[in-house]
Specification:
Layout (H helix, E strand, L loop, with lengths): L13 H4 L2 H22 L16 H51 L10 E4 L2 E4 L20 E8 L8 E8 L9 E5 L5 E3 L6 E2 L9 E2 L1
Length: about 210
Amino acid sequence: PGSEIIKLPDNLPNKNATLIEPYTCAVGCIDRYKSIHDWVAGDAFEISDTIVIYGVGAIGMLMVAGFYLAAAALENIKDQGALKENEIKAAKILTKYAKAQEIYKKHYGDYAANASGLIIEENGKYIVIDSKLKVLNASYSKENPANGYYYVELVERGSKSHNSSFFLSAVPAQYGISGLNTFWIDKRGVVMKKNNGAKPIYYNINFLDESRGD
């Protein structure tokens, strides 16, 4: 009946219009597969899954392309989630480091020379201020990152010429894969970030407002 006729847009080429019906069939099959797979397997299908498509006509070829694009999109979402998680962990490490340095300074009047020295003595016992900062001891190089980030530390202890300060940055070991943003913190206790292509932050520890990415 005429009520079922749909007028195509004038700017839609006829050759593209011929793919509407097979495309709809392909998408319907992909959606059905996703629903069954998620229910049976308990998770979303992945780009590494094996899928058998019987027939490589228009519908079959569109299904091949559709399955690949759908799985790739899911992989990208997963990758972005992991990347974001790495960044959150890196920012937390910086915050913990700054807090630990302030605790150390309250006890000894100056900042610890490095993260491994963030230990205080109380009642004859030596106490590690924050055990989670031990990841820094093995993560000072790009080749040995922790959760996708490596760290650059700089501490200037007090002297007659200037006040003491510290600086710690977290740099993605693999830009766009393990992280996007470079983070840093100093004695002001504020985590800063910049998407600078995973380049180290050049920092003048004597002039705190001159931190910059290059």
